[in-house]
Design a protein that fits this description.
mainly alpha, Growth Hormone, Chain: A, 20 helices, globular, sugar transport, transport, MFS, Glucose-6-phosphate exchanger SLC37A2, glycoprotein
């Protein structure tokens, strides 16, 4: 009797070739953008090591010093204006990222995504490592670290438009919210891994907190060069060329039809692009302020050391994973992307207030509130940067032109990155007056993000009016 086919083989053969390619591309792009975010996170972990409370540090017996207050700090961050200097580093990266993003999408539409991503990841790995090498080369120049941050910010712009365009090329609109919600967890996974890797070295040799992530993202760039398949047409090209070549005995050239890449102004005219771009500006302002300042906030308020504060801050990103998946599921089921974003942002505002007021009272309270805040803040951010961007990049007004995804994604994320630059800057300027004021700034930005005109289109005037009344009520409650 002939043995039946092994269950594992039956499972493998039950999936079509396209399904395998889709799964493979989803995994690869997830890995790539995890590496991008992993390499961004170390600066927020290392801040509390560059400027420390030296009175709690055991001084080496052979160290001859005259200043007992700042002897353990890394110059030039040993000064009283260290928070402003940290703000300079943050904004060197974020402003360069925001400006570069508007051009990145244009390049992404016209260059091979595989070459573009590979180049960006290798160069980003180089500049991330150069920041860490400042520790071993004993560099104490703010200009050096700011220059490295600027160059790294420009290199990092290669990532988002390219990976969204690649995933959008492979997946249809039907389940895009859920698929991209799960896929977008790479942002939080990268932040978590970046925190853990940086935290492992921060107290002993903070240079490795940058060098190790730099090596990781450069390695994924090499992986991208060898394995990324940009779209279904690339697979068709290879398959048809091989089949026709086998039949005729000669390799056949298969031509692929190219539509004209969309212009910047043309992308702006797509309905919804401007509205969601402005929404993301405020949502990303809140998210990136947490990304860059949450470990320092936890260290100052809860009095944790640098590693403990970094580990605790990862809970915000764990909540972000849940929020992205939930937002994707709800928006797929209801068909209301804008409404889903708006409702989550409305609930986020009072939760931020409660976290600042009561979040540090116990460990359980801290964990619970960080998870909830991360979910409500990062859920809309994830939805806009993934499913919404992909929807708008394949909008019906484009009449089938598939070469708008990268430009639309870059416009939305570039506008959001302006908020990402402003948030940490404002936090650096406001934090000396007290953390309460930082949270009032975050709550205000969160409420402004709710004012999306597309909610009116999805739900009608009554819900839009109720939405604005709820926002007004929250404002009165928080600022009375």
């Amino acid at each position: 009797m002939k043995a039946p086919l092994a269950p594992g083989i039956r499972l493998i053969t039950s999936f079509s070739r396209d399904s395998w390619y889709r799964g493979f591309i989803l995994f690869l792009t997830f890995l790539f953008y995890t590496a991008y975010h992993l390499s961004r996170k170390p600066i927020s972990i290392v801040k509390s090591e560059l400027h420390r409370n030296c009175s709690t540090v055991i001084r080496p017996a052979n160290l001859n010093i005259t200043n007992n207050v700042t002897w353990c700090d890394w110059q030039p961050f040993d000064q009283d204006n260290y928070q402003t200097l940290f703000g300079v580093l943050d904004n060197s990266f974020l402003v360069a990222y925001a400006i570069g993003m508007f051009f990145s999408g244009i390049f992404g539409e016209r260059l091979s995504l595989r070459y573009y991503l590979s180049f960006g990841m290798v160069m980003s790995g180089l500049f991330t490592s150069l920041f860490g090498l400042g520790f071993y080369w004993n560099i104490h120049s703010l200009g050096y670290y700011a220059f490295v941050q600027i160059m790294n910010g420009l290199m990092q712009t290669t990532g988002w438009p390219a990976v969204v365009a690649c995933v959008g090329n492979w997946f249809g609109k039907g389940k895009r919210g859920f698929i991209m919600g799960v896929w977008n967890s790479h942002t939080s996974v990268g932040n978590i891994l970046g925190s853990l890797i940086a935290g492992a070295f921060v107290s002993s040799s903070w240079g490795l907190s940058f060098i190790v992530p730099g090596i990781i993202i450069a390695s994924t760039g090499v992986l991208c060069f060898f394995f990324l398949v940009e779209s279904t047409s690339c697979v068709w090209f290879v398959s048809e060329g091989l089949i026709n070549g086998a039949i005729s005995g000669e390799p056949q050239e298969v031509t692929e039809e190219h539509s004209k890449a969309i212009s910047f102004c043309g992308a702006l005219s797509i309905p919804g692009v401007v509205e969601f771009s402005l929404c993301l500006l405020f949502a990303k302002l809140v998210s990136y302020t947490f990304l860059y300042w949450l470990p320092l906030y936890i260290s100052n308020v809860a009095h944790f050391d640098a590693k403990e504060a970094g580990d605790m801050s990862t809970l915000f990103d764990v909540g972000g994973i849940l929020g992205g998946v939930i937002a994707g599921l709800i928006s797929d089921y209801t068909g209301g992307r804008a409404t889903t974003c708006c409702v989550m942002l409305i609930f986020a505002a009072p939760m931020l207030f409660l976290y600042n007021a009561f979040g540090q009272r116990s460990l359980a309270t801290t964990i619970g509130m960080l998870l909830v805040c991360g979910s409500l803040v990062n859920g809309p951010y994830a939805l806009i940067t993934t499913a919404v961007s992909a929807d708008l990049g394949t909008h019906e007004s484009l009449r089938g032109n598939s070469r708008a995804l990268s430009t639309v994604t870059a416009i939305i994320d570039g506008t959001g990155s302006i908020g990402a630059a402003l948030g940490p800057l404002f936090a650096g300027l406001i934090s000396p007056t007290g953390w309460n004021n930082v949270f009032y700034m975050l709550i205000s930005a969160d409420i402004l993000a709710c004012l999306i005109r597309d909610v009116y289109k999805e739900t009608g005037s009554m819900f839009f009016t109720i939405n604005n009344l709820i926002i007004l009520t929250v404002l009165i409650f928080l600022y009375q």
